[in-house]
Amino acid sequence: MPSFNVRFIKTVCDDTGHEHRACRAAFRVDAPSLSAAAQQAETDFCKQKGVRDWTIFADAMELRTPLALPPAWGG
Known about the structure:
By secondary structure, the protein is an alpha+beta fold. The protein has one helix at residues 34-49, and strands at 3-13, 19-30, 60-64.
C-alpha cells in the first residue's frame, strides 16, 4: 500500500507583517490512493486536535509520496 507524507500548514504573520508558513502537524499515512490519504489525514488530524474541522488549525494540507531511495550500486 502506498505511503504519503502529510503536512498541515498555517500561514501566520510575524511582528513585522511578513507571512510565514508554519507546519502545524506532519505524519505519514498509508492509503490506497491520494484521495483516501487526504481523508485519513483529515480524520487523524481532527482526532489529534480534538476538533471536527481541521481548517481551524491549518490553512492547507500537503500530501506527497516519499522520495524513493536511489538503488545501491555494488561492484
